[in-house]
Write a structure and sequence with these properties.
The protein is 46% helix and 15% strand. With 304 residues, it is α/β, with parallel strands linked by helices. The protein is elongated and about 80 Å long. The two termini are 29 Å apart. InterPro entries: Glyco_trans_2-like, Glycosyltransferase_2, Nucleotide-diphossugar_trans.
């Protein structure tokens, strides 16, 4: 019987100051898991178009450690593409993810692994005592997580926590377009009872500045209105294209009538048609992106 394997997936973009710390912590935990639980391991670093010395430092580590794999993106494609590349190319029976900024403590991989061994398909952390600004990160994150839980039906408390573990076949189901990684694990079609959550302590970024800002909340809402239509994405891509065109066509006569003879009812109708056209167009464009991703993929990497 062959030895079981775990894959640790770490996307990185301009994290040269965090490479050594992240590697040393992950390596230590993986060695403990190997000793205590008998799992061999691989560490997949996805270099997402870094313009600093991140790739150079990763190559130096790989020369010393044969368990390191470097997936080098052809350009900066974003976290969704980086995760997809790692998920598709990972060789492990279980796949674990974390950020490359030092905020995630890899010691929690042990607890996530226990949950997966119990039979859960996904295990995810939820952050306690977050070391981030209240107004620009924590409050928007709280609101977004509640909305995501309502829309997707998967009541994960902290979708933004990168400390997650998967039975390997689960994240291989979908090519993740830009922005849709914020709906993991719901995007993979898992049910509430198939997901386990564990509390994890948050840490301050070790080096550098965050790549995220307040606009992320707006992007979450933009993509989230598309989520209910993903199961029949090809049909609904066409449906919302036609629906948006019909709304635009209806806008012209109502708009002309409003100009000639203003009125509250006409103004309300014009606004409703405009809003309907806008929302339909956004959903159509998002579904088009999603379907294109499934056909053509979202990443191009070299396995160094």
């Amino acid at each position: 019987m062959s030895q079981k394997l775990i894959s640790i997936l770490i996307p990185m973009h301009n994290e040269e100051g965090n490479v050594d710390l992240v590697y040393s912590e992950v390596k230590a935990v993986c060695e403990e898991i190997k000793s205590e639980r008998g799992y061999d391991y691989e560490i997949l670093f996805v270099n997402d178009g870094s313009t600093d010395r991140t790739l150079e430092k990763l190559k130096t580590l790989k020369e010393k450690d044969g368990r390191i794999r470097i997936l080098n993106m052809d350009r900066n494609r974003g976290e969704a593409a980086g995760l997809t590349a790692g998920f598709q190319l990972a060789k492990g029976d279980f796949i674990f993810t974390m950020d490359g900024d030092g905020q995630n403590d890899p010691r929690y991989f042990k607890e996530l692994l226990l949950k997966l061994e119990e039979g859960y398909l996904v295990a995810t952390g939820y952050r306690l005592k977050r070391k981030e600004p209240l107004l620009t990160r924590r409050i928007p994150s709280f609101i977004a997580n509640r909305i995501i839980a309502i829309v997707t039906g998967v009541k994960v408390r902290d979708n933004g926590c990168s400390l997650k573990g998967y039975v390997a076949e689960i994240p291989k189901r979908v090519q993740i377009p830009h922005g849709f990684h914020r709906f993991l694990p719901a995007l993979f079609g898992v049910k509430n009872e198939e997901v386990a959550e564990i509390p994890v302590l948050d840490r301050k970024r070790y080096w550098g500045r965050s790549h995220y800002g307040l606009k992320r909340t707006v992007e979450v809402l933009r993509e989230l209105i598309t989520f209910p239509f993903l199961k029949r994405s090809v049909f609904y891509e066409k449906f919302f294209k036609v629906w948006s065109i019909l709304h635009v066509c209806a806008l012209f006569p109502v708009g002309i009538s409003l100009i000639l003879k203003p009125g509250l009812i006409k103004g309300s109708l014009f606004f409703a048609l405009f809003l309907g056209a806008l929302v339909s167009y956004v959903i159509h464009k998002n579904l088009k992106r999603f379907n294109l991703a499934q056909r053509e993929g979202v990443f191009k990497v070299e396995d160094l």
